[in-house]
Amino acid sequence: MELTTVNIQINSIVGRISHQCDVLFRVIDLKESDGQKVAVLYGEDYRLIADAAFDDLVVIDPYEQLKISKEFRSLEEQSYELFQQDIELLMQRQEYTSTSGYHHDFSYFQVPGRVLHIDGDPAYLQKCLSLYEKIGVPVYGVHCNEKEMHLRIGDLIEKYRPDILVITGHDAYSKSKGKKSDINAYRHSKYFAKTVREARRRVPHLDQLVIFAGACQSHFESLIHAGANFASSPLRVNIHALDPVYIVAKISFTPFMERINVLDVLRNTLTGEKGLGGIETKGVLRTGMPFKPTIDE
Fold it and tell me: Does 34 score more than 80 pLDDT?
């Protein structure tokens, strides 16, 4: 692997020597702290934020970047294929129910749940919006700094009237700031929790607005207690950038009369139950009839 400590600048792809370069980061800001040059880092594939001194960073060779990127894209493709199988089974079951066991040739239409996705990272937001579109989930995307989300959430809910709300971005636990039970030891967990509480003040019922909240290493318990249906991260591990999409898409395509088993929702995420969890929740898909593809004037 070609490594260098020179030419670290905004948008450089780097690894941390102290962590054996286990995660690729994008440099999003440069600053000084106690006379030392420090870079602010966003995970390239994980929703993780970190600060690191320049002497702990190495620029990753483009060939190595491509190699690691291919590995992640392969995992993403596997998750997408498994998810598509799940959705097809859901659709077949719903068609069977809607046509009374295929005994009647009813024409019907389906209305998946609308998603409002608020993300602290504009690049990750675009990745997620592309996947929502590919899957067929109706979505509104808003980029917002994590610290400002609780100030904007009320107006955004009023404007978009979502069935499902995603509150995510970047987060991290810092051992130097306190125990894992202390929410103040986390970069953005307290802001995610504030945003969830404000959303629940507007829509209190857990099945009228389904909420996913959190990012890498987030304070899972606080987010659930604040009113989230699903959150990260039970074991304080990193979560993949696209994990929120798979969770809420499954909810969006599950009929509103059915309850979702938490393990079923987590099964096709890239992180699984170590990084994601939640409570029993109803789906939000609704079926109507008749379906009229065109209306004659």
Answer: no
